[in-house]
Each structure stands twice: as structure tokens, then as C-alpha cells.
Amino acid sequence: MGIALDHCDLRFIFNEFKCIYVFPDLLSIFHEQEMTETVHETNGHGYLATFVGKNGRFVILRVHSHGLVTIDLQCYEEDNISQLDNLLNALETKLKALLNGNITRIKRLPALIRGAKVDRYWPTADGRLIEYDIDGVVYEEDSAYQNIKILHSQQFGNILVLNGDVNLAESDLAYTQAIMGSGKEDYAGKEVLILGGGDGGILAEVVKQKPKMITMVEISFIVIDGCKMHMRKTCGDILDNLKGDCYQVIEDCVPVLKKYVKEGRMFDYIINDLTAVPISTEPEEDSTWEFLRLILDLSIKVLHPSGKYFTQGNSVNLSEALTLYEEQLGKLSCPVDFSKEVVCVPSYLELWVFYTIWKK
Fold first, then answer.
1. Three-state secondary structure of 261-313
2. What angle do CA 164, 169, 170 make, to 5 degrees?
3. Where's the PABS domain (predicted)?
4. How far apart are CA 277 and CA 279, in angstroms?
5. N or C end: fewer C-beta atoms under 10 angstroms in the chain?
6. Hey, what's the torsion of the CAs at 83, 85, 87, 89, to 10 degrees?
7. C-beta separation of 195 from 299 below 8 A
8. Catalytic-residue membership of 273
9. DSSP 8-state secondary structure symbol assigned to residue 145
């Protein structure tokens, strides 16, 4: 377990002499804890010391020249928590006394758990680290294309994670509804093509509206195998059979789309649940952008003139990537218009952009 007292943001500036002069009084607290100090050379960039104590306890004290003080306390899980709290409280009290109240802000962060059997930390699309309440791995397999995990969250239910990206939790009906048009569409008697969607959520919801036929193309049946066992609040029993009265599940969308283009096949609705808009700022060179453009171009060719194409975008904070995507829409072989909607997806802990695209 690691505990951090971090980012004590000081309004005034220390110089190197001031740091060395003030902090011996602070060091006495570490000495009382029987911790041995080592002061490190910083070449004039503030003050840096490390402290090693019993039971593997380890502290990094850093005073930055612009006035930021960080104290990182690392220890083992079995260490005495009350002692650690007392140490941090003593350091905080001493800092306030030494600096005569000239502290803008003190922030104590909760413990980071490193090396646990179950990884609780997953990044958002815009690079923020989220600690989930994950307490178990219920499924993990590797396909030829990706690592597939299904993790259990006390708050969100089971969560599908592909290659380290949180894809969908059992709590995320908002995602499924948004990528289907947010309840504004009538799928009854329609031809529907789902690209990806191995969690079965979209398929299960569209089937309820009694379409003429749904064709779902999913390249990894290992995802389907995991989800039909462990994501049943999302997919129900729809993935128990890969073919039903009004749906079929087949493999690999690119060959299928090319075949449909040659045949002149048309769909009233196409729902692309394959991948989020890439965050790369070099769409002409990024292979993910090339794949996305290929799927878009093939899909528009098999979209009925009055049909609609639904897809996810990415985090609303990734405005540059979303703008690049919208620019790509203007480069398709067939002119299109689009609209977008911002939806809160519970397990993402961020707002997500969804697109509706249609032919001009």
C-alpha cells in the first residue's frame, strides 16, 4: 500500500539556502520514526531527500524551487495504518508551523495499491487515472487480436475491458441506447447491420424492436464467449445462439462489407461499435485512422439512401480528435451530413460523443 501527502502548493518561492535552512526541523520527525535519511544532489533545483525505515517504509521528500512540497510515503499493506496517519499528521502540522501559515493548499491523496492481484486502475480516454471498485477478474482470455478481460465492479457490475480500455459495463445501458439513436428510431421491419458489438448489448436491444433482419459481424468470438457467460445483464440470452428468427452473427466485417458492396446489398441502419475515434493527431499516417476510414467508406456504400449510420466518437474532452474525425467525414466517396450527441456513460466516468451520419 502506498500513501501520499501530495502537492502542498506554496504561494511563495524558496531558494536553495532557505530549503536547507528550514527543513532540518522537519527531518526530526523522520528521525523519531527511526528512518535513515539520504540527501540527494539537485543542482540547485530545490531539495530532495529519501528516508528508509523499518518494515520497508520509504519516504520521498521533495521541495521544488517554485514552492511545491511533495511527500510520498510508501509501505507494505500490513504496516500499521494508525502510525502512518500519525506520521503524516505530524509532518503536516510541522510544515504549517515552519512556514508560518504561508501555505496555499495541502492535499492528502488516498492510498495507491501497487502490485495487487486485481488491477483497479484504468485510464480515461483523455488520460486521467481512475480507481475503480474492482474486486475480481471473472474472465480473461487472449484472442489473435486483443486481450479480453471481464472484471467485477461493486458499483458497475461486470466490466468488459479490451486491451486495457474499458469498453462496457453492465451498468452502461446509456451507451447502448445512444449508439442506437437514443430511442428516436423505429427498427421494426428494418434491415440492420451491427459492426462489432461482441458484448451483445446492441443486438439484444434491437431484437426487441422486431426488425426484419440483423446481421452482426464480430471478429472475435472469444469476446462473445466471455460476454454470454459474464455480461448477461447486458446481453441477456441473445448470444446463447448465433442465429435466430431475425438475426445472425458472423465473423470479420471487412470481407463481409466488401462482399455486400459487390452485391449491392443495402441496410436501413448500420451501427458501428468497432472502435472509438483515434486520438492520434496524424490521421494520414495512423493505421487506426486508415481502418476507420475504410469501414466508414464501405458502410456508406451499403447504407440505404434514407438510412442512418450510428457510431461512437470519443471523450468530449478530446475535441481535436473529434474535429479530425469530422474532417474525415468530408472526404468520403459519398457526401454525408452528421449530428452528434453527448451522453454520460456510467462506467466511463466521462462524457462520451456519439455520431449519427446520413447521406446528403
1. HHHCCCEEEEEEECCCCCCCCCCCCCHHHHHHHHHHHHHHHCEEEEEEEEEEE
2. 155
3. 120-359
4. 6
5. C
6. -150
7. yes
8. yes
9. S
DSSP 13: P
145 and 159 Cβ atoms separated by less than 8 Å: no
| Whether 207 contacts 244, CB under 8 Å | yes
Measured CA to CA, the distance from residue 182 to residue 35 in angstroms comes to: 59
Grid cell 446528403 in the structure block, residue? 360
**345 and 159 Cβ atoms separated by less than 8 Å:** no
Distance separating alpha carbons of residues 265 and 280, to the nearest angstrom: 33
Asked if 170 and 150 touch (Cβ cutoff 8 Å), the reply is: no
Phi, psi (deg, nearest 5) at residue 288? -65, -40
185 grid coordinates: 428510431
Q: What is the pLDDT along the chain (360 residues), one digit of tens a residue?
A: 334 444 344 333 344 444 445 566 778 888 888 899 998 998 888 788 999 987 788 999 888 777 778 888 888 877 888 888 888 888 888 877 877 767 778 888 888 888 888 889 999 998 899 999 999 999 999 998 899 999 999 999 999 999 989 999 999 999 999 999 999 999 999 999 999 999 999 999 999 999 999 999 998 899 999 999 999 999 999 999 999 999 999 988 888 999 999 999 999 999 999 988 876 656 555 688 888 888 999 999 999 999 999 999 999 999 999 999 999 898 888 899 999 999 999 999 999 999 999 999
- Number of Cα atoms under 13 Å in the Cβ half of residue 298: 21
Length of the chain as a residue count:
360
Cell readout for 152 is: 467485477
Q: What is the pLDDT of residue 18?
A: 46
Q: Nearest to residue 354, comparing CAs of 148, 185, 152, 220? A: 185
Catalytic residue among 85, 273, 297, 337: 273
Strand partners, 308: 269
How many angstroms separate the CA atoms of 287 and 303, rounded? Answer: 24
275: its cell numbers: 472502435
> H or E segment at 337?
strand 336-345
Q: Which three cell numbers stand for residue 256?
A: 463481409
